[in-house]
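Justification of computing resources. Each target in the renewal requires a structure prediction run like the one illustrated here; the chain below, 137 residues long, is used simply to show the kind of job we budget for.
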Amino acid sequence: MRNPFRQLKYLPWLALFQAAALTLLAVSVVDIALIMGLRIAVMRQAIVLLFAPPLGILMLIGISSAIGALAVYILRRFFRRQVMISVGVLWALVLCVMVLMVVRSLLPVPSLLIQANQLSLVGVVLGVFLSQGRVWR
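Resulting structure tokens:
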């Protein structure tokens, strides 16, 4: 009987975690800039309006999609010699990004953009697979 988890052993985990870490580092810099921008009254009103309940769900999915697409871009740009992109590698990248998002959410640092929940998972999956569409078609 064939073991479906055997492929996991041969994935380039180090490169995937490095790409996910670079992605979340870049997003954290933008996140910190937004949090510092909350001191400006106009910026605070705009952010509160954007993250209000009807639009907040779409914003969270959109931001998570952008995180997933950025992770694929970083993987293709900086790790193209170590990683041959396939569907399995993309799913592993989603796992790496989500694991690091959970770790980042456990840190006592305030965050507007990085949240680890089901909507973020949907957004990251959409961002990863829609930005790299020709691999899975």
